[in-house]
């Protein structure tokens, strides 16, 4: 079929109301209408959907659009019906949500030739009755949307996508267009091979989204920071992504309690609720949707002003696609992600039990995310490099690292040493393995290859493993090194790298950022590390001096009085009363009364002398669910009931009960659990743990305590004794 450019522009205006095509769209559409296969790699917001919707409307027959999500299909079908007034039959979807009557309606519209676009889930495509229907109609072309789902290296791998080619062959051949917003060169190759379309013309747009701002934040107090951020950007649409359904529900509830209109979206909700919540977000009845990664694929809402990742995603591709839902109209889009090493360990734990090959792929994708988060390089440069595109500017001006650049160093000698190590070995190895050798860190694998005896073992021991991993990553970005994706990320020296080694020249590198351990909703109630940067640095220094002198006078560890995070909050909020002080992070009623007098006096005097306008108090209102059991637990402990019985009565696991107790204690309430400790624990063990918190601990972190005390001490015992210590000393 041939159609002139003028006719194509006329149809664009008629159906979609646009005067001009976005970059690349017209060429793709003309190619497809001409009956040829196409592979489209276009970032979110680039207009992929139009590349198959317009051809479907102008070509003879019905276009079959294979799409992964029911919510996405409904959204697209509603949009097409809106473009073509009064012809609801022009677009349909076929999936498990339809009743028999609805399926009959779809069949009739297909057979009569009314339907131009049929959206089908890959699972529905394999059903014999659906194949029979499709064999009876004329098919204009097949479109495989979200085609990255084909590849195991893609972030949303769907095994059913692997069967698409066989089903298409059974139904009948027609031109094929595959589309995705995110695909590394490896994923692109997988898609083309699996769909049998190596002859397809590849249309690749730039992955650069210049209107998006990227930032990674320390995950020390994400809930407070998220609420502050949203209140600073009132009445703007945003998406918050969490990895678990439980966290989605909790965070949506917390936002509403704090005056932010939000709804949850995850696979655990029934289909009706999910659809209603999605529609309310699209219709702007609410400002924020809190969702698992299932939300947003193909959702056409151009004015999402921010995307927040409460949990760091499992892959760069997932991160890029999800952040791509911000600023699709070309205007401001802010992309924040919270990162902690604890989250990475959780994600690694989730991979256990999967096939080894799948674990290897998952770990490599995760390590790419870690490298991105911890890097001090331009985030735009890192993202584009991941997708095989070079970003030539030194400073993008729209990411945290470019706006607040870190010091650089000449990495010439470091790169030469690294290359000498790689070239000395007959085999290739992963980045972490090479970094361990240079840093002099031995393990069983290194010993098995006898590389602990190599002249290079410890040759770079003045630097850490993290430092060497950063050097490797930047060597890859500079194309001095290559990574073999097929072999799970083995590192080699590139041709350009060999030339560099023969004639080295200065190379500017940056060191990685250091991140905190991160918040832990299940274990630590401890005051986290300082967030840094936001407070009055002069006041903060004075508060630290006061804490230091008080710790000497009271013979207490400094963290027992107030944590760094608490002092950081004081330097931001300037509390001058006990009620204001207890709302600072990690303080609570007990600590405010016990240690607060000198601090609020110092702050009050400082505020007066420096004529400081104090901010309106920002108080994070918490959900009642966390403290719903509070009265019952306090009364049960007063009655000296065994903790196991208290947990059983409330249907809690022991660690969940301890988390509840820790929350009660940290809010300032004293509990006496000596009766339980005397019965259930060895006296020497209790003394050792108590002594550690009294004299050695630098904070009340459980993970630090476990590491320092060693494997002979049970983590649950440590938590119980910490509760005793907090009640007797800290509160």
Overview of this structure, please?
With 731 residues, the protein is α/β, with parallel strands linked by helices. It has 34 helices and 17 strands. The protein has 5 domains: 5-204, P-loop containing nucleotide triphosphate hydrolases (Rossmann fold); 212-403, Rossmann fold; 408-510, Winged helix-like DNA-binding domain superfamily/Winged helix DNA-binding domain (Arc Repressor Mutant, subunit A, Orthogonal Bundle); 537-609, HRDC domain (DNA polymerase, domain 1); 624-730, Orthogonal Bundle (Arc Repressor Mutant, subunit A), CATH 1.10.10. The strands form 4 sheets. The protein has a 7-stranded parallel sheet, with helices on both faces. It has a 6-stranded parallel sheet with strand order 8-13-12-9-11-10. A two-stranded antiparallel ribbon has the order 14-17. Helix 2 (25-33) crosses helix 3 (50-58), helix 19 (431-439) packs across helix 21 (465-477) and helix 23 (537-554) crosses helix 25 (564-573).
- Average pLDDT rating: 84
- Morphology call: globular
Proportion of strand residues: 5-15%
Regions with little confidence, pLDDT below 50 for 5+ residues: 520-533
CATH class of the largest domain: Alpha Beta
Count of β-strands: 17
**Count of discrete domains:** 5
Radius of gyration: 29 Å
Characterize the main sheet.
Answer: 7 strands, parallel
CATH superfamily of the largest domain: P-loop containing nucleotide triphosphate hydrolases
Record the strand order, biggest sheet: 3-4-2-5-6-1-7
Helix content: 40-55%
Report the structural category.
Answer: alpha/beta
Terminal CA distance? 79 Å
CATH architectural designation of the largest domain:
3-Layer(aba) Sandwich
CATH fold topology of the largest domain:
Rossmann fold
Number of helical regions: 34
Quaternary structure annotation: single chain
């Amino acid at each position: 079929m041939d159609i002139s450019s003028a006719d194509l522009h006329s149809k664009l205006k008629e159906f979609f109301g646009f005067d001009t095509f976005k970059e690349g769209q017209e060429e793709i559409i003309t190619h497809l209408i001409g009956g040829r296969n196409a592979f489209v790699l276009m970032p979110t917001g680039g207009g992929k959907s139009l590349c198959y919707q317009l051809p479907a409307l102008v070509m003879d027959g019905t276009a079959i659009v294979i799409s992964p999500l029911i919510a996405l299909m409904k959204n697209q079908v509603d949009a097409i019906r809106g473009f073509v007034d009064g012809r609801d039959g022009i677009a349909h979807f076929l999936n498990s949500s339809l009743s028999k009557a609805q399926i009959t309606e779809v069949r009739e519209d297909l057979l009569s030739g009314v339907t131009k676009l049929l959206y089908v889930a890959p699972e529905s495509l394999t059903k014999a009755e659906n194949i029979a229907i499709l064999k009876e109609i004329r098919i204009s072309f097949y479109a495989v949307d979200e085609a990255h789902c084909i590849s195991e290296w893609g972030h949303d791998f769907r095994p059913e996508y692997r069967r698409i080619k066989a089903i298409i062959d059974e139904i009948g051949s027609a031109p094929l267009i595959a589309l995705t917003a995110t695909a590394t060169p490896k994923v692109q190759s997988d898609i083309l091979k699996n769909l049998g379309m190596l002859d397809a013309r590849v249309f690749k747009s730039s992955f650069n989204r210049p209107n998006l701002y990227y930032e990674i934040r320390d995950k020390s107090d994400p809930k407070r920071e998220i609420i502050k951020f949203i209140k600073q950007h009132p009445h703007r649409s945003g998406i918050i992504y969490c990895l678990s359904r439980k966290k989605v529900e909790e965070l949506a509830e917390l936002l509403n309690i704090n005056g932010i209109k939000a709804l949850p979206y995850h696979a655990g909700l029934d289909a009706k609720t999910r659809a209603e919540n999605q529609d309310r977000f699209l219709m702007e009845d609410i400002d924020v949707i809190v969702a698992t990664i299932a939300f947003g694929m193909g959702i056409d809402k151009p004015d999402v002003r921010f995307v927040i990742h409460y949990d760091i995603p499992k892959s760069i591709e997932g991160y890029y696609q999800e952040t791509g839902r911000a600023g699709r109209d070309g205007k401001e889009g802010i992309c924040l992600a919270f990162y902690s090493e604890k989250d990475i360990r959780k994600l690694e734990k989730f991979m256990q039990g999967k096939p080894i090959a799948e674990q290897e792929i998952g770990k490599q994708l995760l390590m790419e995310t870690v490298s991105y988060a911890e890097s001090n390089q331009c985030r735009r440069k890192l993202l584009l490099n991941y997708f095989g595109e070079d970003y030539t500017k030194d400073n993008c001006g729209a990411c945290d690292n470019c706006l607040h650049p870190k010091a650089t160093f000449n990495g010439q000698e470091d790169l030469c040493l690294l290359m000498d190590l790689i070239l000395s070995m007959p085999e290739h190895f992963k980045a972490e393995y090479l970094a361990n050798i240079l840093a002099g860190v031995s393990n069983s694998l290194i010993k098995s290859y006898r590389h602990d005896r190599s002249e290079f073992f410890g040759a770079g021991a003045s630097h850490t493993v993290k430092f060497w991993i950063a050097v490797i990553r930047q060597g890859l970005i500079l194309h001095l090194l290559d990574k073999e994706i097929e072999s799970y990320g083995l590192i080699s020296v590139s041709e350009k790298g060999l030339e560099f080694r023969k004639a080295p020249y200065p190379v500017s590198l940056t060191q990685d950022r250091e991140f905190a351990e991160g918040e832990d909703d299940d274990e630590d109630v401890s005051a986290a590390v300082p967030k840094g940067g936001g407070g009055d640095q002069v006041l903060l220094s004075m508060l630290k001096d006061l804490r230091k002198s008080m710790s000497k006078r009271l013979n207490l560890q400094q963290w027992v009085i107030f944590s760094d995070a608490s002092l950081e909050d004081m330097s931001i909020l300037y509390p001058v009363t006990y009620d204001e002080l207890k709302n600072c992070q990690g303080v609570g009623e007990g600590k405010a009364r016990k240690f607060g007098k000198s601090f609020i006096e110092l702050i009050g005097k400082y505020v007066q002398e420096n004529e400081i306008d104090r901010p309106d108090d920002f108080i994070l209102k918490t959900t009642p669910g966390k403290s719903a059991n509070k009265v019952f637990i306090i009364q049960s402990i007063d009655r000296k009931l065994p903790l196991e019985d208290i947990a059983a009565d409330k249907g809690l696991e022991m660690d969940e009960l301890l988390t509840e107790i820790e929350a009660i204690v940290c809010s300032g309430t004293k509990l006496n659990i000596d009766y339980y400790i005397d019965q259930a624990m060895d006296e020497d063990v209790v003394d050792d743990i108590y002594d550690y918190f009294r004299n050695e601990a630098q904070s009340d972190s459980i993970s630090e305590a476990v590491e320092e005390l060693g494997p002979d001490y049970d983590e649950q015992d440590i938590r119980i004794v910490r509760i005793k210590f907090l009640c007797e000393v800290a509160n």
